[in-house]
Amino acid sequence: MMMMFIIRRLMQTIPVVVGVTFVVFFIMQLVPGDPAVLLAGEGASKETIQAIREQLGLNRPLFVQYFDYLMNVFRGDFGVSLKNSQPVLDEILVRLPITMELAFFSIIFTIILGMTAGIISAIKPYSLTDSTVMIIALLGISLPSFWFGLMMMYFFSVKLQILPVAGWDSILHIILPALTLGAGGAAIVARMTRSSMLEVIRQDYIRTARAKGLRERVIIYKHALRNALIPVITVVGLQFGALLGGTVLVESIFAINGLGRMIVDAIRMRDLPMVQGGVLVASLVFVIVNLFVDVLYRFFNKRIELN
Amino acid sequence: MQAAAEKKVLLKVDHLKQYFPVKTDSLFKPKAYVKAVDDISFHLYEGETLSIVGESGCGKSTTGRAILRLDEPTGGKVFFSGQNILDLNKKEMRKLRGDLQVIFQDPFASLNPRQTIKQILNEAMAIQNVVEKPNRMSRMLELLGYVGLPAEALDRYPHEFSGGQRQRIGIARALAVNPKLIICDEAVSALDVSIQAQILNLLKKLQHQFQLTFLFISHDLSVVRHISDRVMVMYLGKVVEIADKKALFDSPLHPYTQALLSSIPVPNPTLKRERIMLKGDVPSPINPPSGCRFHTRCPFATEKCKAEEPALREMGEKHFVSCHYAEKFR
């Protein structure tokens, strides 16, 4: 039953991924700037530019280029970088683990901080603690990560000098980028946990649990939290998408050579195969995470039928 | 019916008050309170069913929750087997909770959707430790038998059952800890009429079998008539009338009770009956009317009713009414 469900969901991801390649390919065509001109360098002759175009197949009709690309991707060939002629896939395989590591620590931070804050708020709603936590959460949602990241860098690295400014060498290097990237998500998770908990706490089965003489702690963790988690899981899953987008900014701020920064550099260079490969892999990761969340969701919520 | 002298009081509620603070528009205004339950006293005999009836918002459910200390009462005393349970600390209270159980209205909301029936029943027994671990399985099967559910139910989740079946699970859960008193808060209101009858009969059967005492909270007078020994009518946080079921239904003395009773449909279309229609809505419990709280809607209200709050007076045998003019309505 569960296996069938996973297989069906996997099949559904194929059109999504193909759609992503389509959108990225044509959007890149709309971006001003010709890769051939950029490659040829300043002051190159028209003949040189034309030669580069022909060499790269850029003079063929767009749809031919697109289907050609798509067929190659299905064969596992992501093409070569226009910049340095290296296979795109090799570059991605170097960059992806770094970004995944960053995303992993960020999401852990999002979950732990967000849920803890949400539970603390929900236990005593409308109290001073609750208001304080929720105001901080509001700040977390509102502050843009490029500003927040720089402020953290200034405070922890420049002023206090307890954490490295940038780079990606040790576990210490992970802390600031992961905090920056996870802050918004943590705030959203905190608010979601709080409202979901408050909803559940009002239910009669919580009253029943109290009437049975269960300890308050057990009521909160065993009865309330487990039921309140269901919508929170969905939000965490969606946050992962936002997180992947956020890596683009955070990796640039903290000079981390991850997938996000690779895509930014490639866009700047009009390195079409590189951009497409990067975005394709990022969306694949997103789709897989969503699938995982769906499975988890059904595991947590016994009421959802597997069809 | 037992003789009056033999009856033992199981629960005595003494001047119970439950106020909830409400948000005011301005910081400078004094704090306002919803007087959900305002100074009520009554008692419950062992083995009887006392029903509390009244409109939505009259404080009947609040009374039930205050007795269970699910919401901490603002004032008053609640004696259970002679002991004021509002004096008990958390630990003592948890221990006592085995004796006091509750069945809620919505069988969809009163069971944790993520626990199997086995876990639900087992948890109740484990907390109160009423049954030794090795005997719990047989006890669970026994409980399911009492409420008329098959043994296969144990490994299923609440959503796999119908409303009536869930309410049976709720009852089994309440019974699991061998309670003395069960508060049924609108226990059948969410069910279809045919299922209501089944559940009511089940409750009656179990009451007989286990000498249970019921505090039955309901807005449905036909249900109340079916299950109660005595009935208490509430209006805006106050007790309006308490009497034996027969006395209350045959000769209600308070104008509000009379109006309530006249609203019961009679299954005879040719029968002409006098329907007392009440004017207006229930006033806000934040600023309840002065004097008799019912005076704003009472067809017989006088100046005295506006000024003076009527006391609960004994008008017949165990028939208490809070109306200045109860004699007139005999």
Describe this structure in words.
The complex is a heterodimer of chains A (307) and B (330). Chain A has 307 residues and is an all-alpha fold. Helices cover 79% and strands 0% of the residues of chain A. Chain A is built from twelve helices and no strands. Chain A has helices spanning 2-30, 35-40, 46-56, 62-74, 88-123, 128-142, 145-159, 171-201, 204-212, 216-253, 259-268, 272-300. In chain A, helix 7 (145-159) crosses helix 8. The longest helix of chain A is centred in the C-terminal third of the chain and has 38 residues, at 216-253. Chain B is globular. In chain B, strands 6-7-8-3-9-10-12-11 form an eight-stranded mixed sheet, sandwiched between helices. A four-stranded antiparallel sheet of chain B has the order 2-1-4-5. Chain B has a domain at 8-99 and 181-194 and 212-265 and 273-329: Rossmann fold. The longest helix of chain B is centred in the middle third of the chain and has 18 residues, at 193-210. Chain B has helices at residues 60-67, 90-96, 117-128, 136-146, 163-175, 193-210, 221-227, 245-250, 255-261, 303-307, and strands at residues 9-22, 32-45, 49-53, 75-80, 83-84, 100-103, 181-185, 213-217, 230-235, 238-244, 313-316, 319-321. In chain B, 28% of the residues lie in helices and 23% in strands. Classes of the chains: A mainly alpha (307), B alpha/beta (330).
How would you concisely characterize the structure shown here?
Chain A has 307 residues and is mainly α. Chain A contains twelve helices and no strands. Chain A folds into two domains: 16-74, no CATH class; 95-300, MetI-like (MetI-like fold, Orthogonal Bundle).
